[in-house]
Amino acid sequence: MQGKAIAELNAGLQAFKDSVSNDELAMQRIEIAIVTFGGAVNIVQDFITVDQFIPPILSVNGLTPMGEAIDIALDHLQERKQIYRENGVSYYRPWVFLITDGEPTDEWQNAAQRIQQAEESKKVAFFTVGVQQANMHTLKQISGGYRQPIHLKGLNFKQMFVWLSASLSGVSHSIPGEVMALPAPTGWGEV
């Protein structure tokens, strides 16, 4: 992602924070972590509640080690869930959003298998969003058919993050383990 695309992604992260900030309960229950994979894989935001979240300014850089990023994100998520279990804290099924405008430049098949196993056992809800020229076929292989990849319409990151905020706010008001229907990605994405 370059230029306008990365600027819109950054604006979308701010829109997410602003939207969730309108819901006191969601601000305390929704945690965010951000793993980037432009060039190198980095955890640029460790898990934090929305009330403490300051959206980072993301940038682009080189290759797309998506497989490594997925593995690191899933490992990091497992560590967080373990902390909850050790402290007797119930938690909601975590959501992972993978957003890319390209395709993996590393080995990603093992990471995809981990995603599919986690989805099968209801340990994670994994969403893939393709931007501009993203390889949607590869994103479909990564998600394994559990959720269809969504192709972002234009650069509608703000709409996507407002949708995400509303969806997560709804979940935050439910009981952990309760099944919730998600609204369609109307206006921001195409399946």
TrEMBL record:
Coiled coil: none annotated. InterPro entries: Tellurite-R_TerY, VWF_A, vWFA_dom_sf. Residues 1-179 form the VWFA domain. It comes from the Bacteria. PROSITE patterns: VWFA. This is VWA domain-containing protein.
